[in-house]
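Sample entry (113 residues):
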Amino acid sequence: MGMGGRRALLTTLALALGLTSLSLPPRAAAHALLLSSEPAAGSTVGTAPTTVVLTFGETSDARLSSIKILDSRGTDHAGGPVQSVPGEPLRLQIAVGQLGDGVYTVSWRTLSA
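Predicted structure, serialized as tokens:
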């Protein structure tokens, strides 16, 4: 196959582990810590994901959470609202829009329920 015949998609998702959290009064503040993600932080995938799933140490409120899929220019490629994963209260997911080759950063802001 020639050079132009097949182009491997190399998409790297780097999770922005610098969590941005909401500022609330001390008694109301409850921040969920990230435990894992799908795709994994720092991974390189051959096919762009259609969904990013984040697993936290506490149940997060999807209505008060945001997840962004940012390219190197800061353009958000999230394909919809943040949603809870049915039957898995520690997990949040977001659909991913069409991604080209490149490095993408996943950043989030969440508040535990």
